[in-house]
Design goal:
It is a single chain. The protein has 355 residues and is of the alpha+beta class. It has eleven helices and eleven strands. The strands form three sheets. A five-stranded mixed β-sheet has the order 6-8-9-11-10. The chain has a four-stranded antiparallel β-sheet with strand order 1-4-3-2, sandwiched between helices. A two-stranded antiparallel ribbon has the order 5-7. The chain binds adenosine-5'-diphosphate (ADP). The site of adenosine-5'-diphosphate has 22 residues, from helix 10 and helix 11.
Length: 355
């Protein structure tokens, strides 16, 4: 059997889908494998002795990115090289690569090994998915926005007919018109919620530092009428600053606080409290608790799905509010979940990135 170093060398030389090579401390390429030819188009003679920046695009060469990568690898032992690179025939491909520092036993730098593979198809697929998603979000936004106008017209003419001509209509015709009016109003709520859902996906403001206390105050002032009608108390601990969008955070608290009021227990004054459940350097976990009617714990996963409603028609709504909350939280990279006990109350938890 051949000795191990020879076996390793042969394996690397024959590796076709990965360009693997050694670069000296000055950035000059010292070795070649079959992958260099297969991926980049260089024969051994054309390759050895070139500067490692040969595969960088002219724009990246201009900002000496190759040298920056080597400096990072020298300081941190390794640097990733995930970017567009150039082949010998000047076509570009999306590379997933890594450069590692090689040292002798005393720790002196001998050079670097670099391994690169071609991930152009994955990158193109990823880019087209991002584009398709953005197009879908814009479509949902435009569709729900444009649907509102004809619906408003149907609603107002049905109401006009009832008001002006109602006494000339039979009682069943009046009843049918009533159904039209209430269905239009229900559909309008649904469309507005869908619009809010689409808006939560379309980037409006870039993420910035948001004081959660201010987002809660904004939500509470929008809910002033229902807080007063129900006698609800909404309290909160001092909350941290997070990296998010103010309007989205306000919407998140608006949906959760208004649910706490809507699903209140008939025999108790609704109390909603917002606190910090956990904190670390990167994430904060916020809890929004209420003392309402609660729901069966087995439904905790389902309630975030669109149009899922656990309670009867006496509670207004479209079942999209929590879906919007989930979307808002997930867009910041966080997650949302709930705990509940029937007749005792519910707590909604979500994580947000600290700013
Ligand atoms: P909506 O309130 O419009 O129905 P949501 O998406 O906000 O829609 O909530 C989905 C369902 O989850 C509600 O219909 C209700 O059954 C349940 N739910 C949400 N929040 C609460 C809460 N605080 N207490 C009890 N049930 C809740």
């Amino acid at each position: 059997m051949e000795n191990r170093p020879d076996l390793y060398r042969q394996q690397i030389e024959q590796l076709k889908d990965y360009a693997f090579f050694f670069i000296d401390v000055n950035g000059m390429i010292q070795t070649w494998n079959a992958g260099v030819e297969h991926l980049l188009g260089y024969s051994e003679a054309e390759w050895i002795g070139q500067h490692a920046s040969i595969i960088f695009t002219p724009a990246d060469q201009a900002v000496t990115l190759c040298e920056t990568e080597m400096r990072v690898a020298r300081e941190q032992n390794s640097a990733s090289d995930i970017r567009w690179h150039r082949k010998k025939d000047t076509t570009e491909f999306f590379a997933n690569g890594v450069i590692n520092a090689v040292r002798n036993s005393s720790g002196d730098l001998l050079g670097f090994t670099k391994i690169v593979c071609d991930e152009t198809s994955r990158k193109q697929l990823e880019d087209s998915l991002i584009q398709a998603n953005a197009a879908l979000e814009n479509f949902a936004y435009a569709a729900s926005h444009d649907l509102q106008e004809p619906l408003r017209t149907i609603g107002s003419y049905a109401q006009l007919l009832l008001r002006r001509e109602g006494n000339q209509l039979s009682s069943s015709a009046q009843e049918y018109l009533g159904f039209i009016v209430s269905s239009v109003s229900r559909m309008s709520t649904l469309i507005q919620d869908l619009l809010a859902y689409a808006c939560a996906g379309v980037e409006k403001e870039p993420a910035s530092s948001v004081l959660l206390d201010l987002a809660i105050e904004a939500a509470v002032s929008q809910l002033a009428a229902s807080i007063e009608d129900s006698g609800a108390t909404v309290t909160h601990d001092p909350l941290p600053t997070v990296a998010a969008e103010h309007s989205q955070m306000t919407r998140l608290f608006l949906n959760l606080i208004s649910n706490g009021i809507k699903y209140r227990a008939p025999n108790r004054t609704p109390c909603i409290h917002i606190s910090v459940a956990a904190n670390d350097d990167q994430w904060t976990t916020i809890a929004v608790s209420d003392n309402g009617i609660g729901f069966q714990p087995e439904h905790t996963g389902k309630i975030f799905e669109p149009f899922t409603r656990l309670h009867g028609k006496e509670y207004s709504g479209s079942g999209v509010g929590l879906t919007i909350c989930q979307r808002i939280v997930e867009r910041t990279g966080g997650r949302i979940w709930a705990q509940s006990k029937v007749d005792e109350g519910s707590t909604f938890f979500f994580t947000l990135p600290r700013s």
